[in-house]
Amino acid sequence: KNEVEQSPQNLTAQEGEFITINCSYSVGISALHWLQQHPGGGIVSLFMLSSGKKKHGRLIATINIQEKHSSLHITASHPRDSAVYICRGTSYGKLTFGQGTILTVHP
Amino acid sequence: EPEVTQTPSHQVTQMGQEVILRCVPISNHLYFYWYRQILGQKVEFLVSFYNNEISEKSEIFDDQFSVERPDGSNFTLKIRSTKLEDSAMYFCASRLNLAGGYTDTQYFGPGTRLTVL
Predict the structure, then answer these.
(1) pLDDT tens digits along B90-103
(2) How many CB atoms lie within 10 A of CB B61?
């Protein structure tokens, strides 16, 4: 069993829909990162969370430390949001990645 | 805006050859990382580097791999004798270390695609 599990693995949406990607982890972590990997392969850090909630534009990330769960939400999705979204746990230098969620937003 | 750069963007090599992948982190950053992603698989952590030494490394980072910061600006990953299974995209990242922990943002380079024939 992976220490960091994401769901769903694949997600298809219509433009404008509200999207949620979930990440559950079974190890203790000091921080959780959400990353976006573009179709060309480039990786961008979206959020780093150790508690609570963060918002940036149409993206919102939340984390519940007790439940070992984080969610990434995209409001008013757009085709340019199509990418792989990856959550990554950090625990005293050890970095554990989820397998990624492939998001496709159709116009 | 400052960014992490990597060269080359694509490296093709023969099995058994040595390769050096180069990264220029953001200039005031203090922590440096290498990751790899085999095609179709998830990103994997290789190594972190701070204060001119390795901080952490994964089980993937065996004796065939080494890292160096030769001149204060470049951060290199060397694979001594490449294997077919080393074919992957290799990403470099750096972070500032504001908080003194592991929680601030890492900035990723665009990656080097390594193909071992």
Answers:
(1) 999 998 765 544 44
(2) 20
d(CA A9, CA A84): 9
CB B106 within 8 A of CB B2: no
Interface test with A, best of B49, B61, B96, B103 (most A CBs within 10 A): B103
Question: For residue B56, which residues of chain A lie inside 8 Å, CB to CB?
Answer: 93-94
Give me the residue from A30, A86, A100 closest to B102, CB to CB.
A30
Cβ contacts of B89 on chain A, cutoff 8 Å = 41
Distance from CA of B42 to the nearest CA of A (A): 5
Is B46 in contact with B111 (CB distance < 8 Å)? no
Task: Give strand ranges (E) for A1-107.
Answer: 4-7, 10-14, 19-25, 31-37, 43-49, 52-56, 59-64, 69-74, 83-91, 94-97, 101-106
User: What is the maximum span of chain A, computed from C-alpha positions, in angstroms?
Assistant: 42
What is the tens place of the pLDDT at every residue in A36-60? Answer: 998 777 888 898 888 899 998 999 9
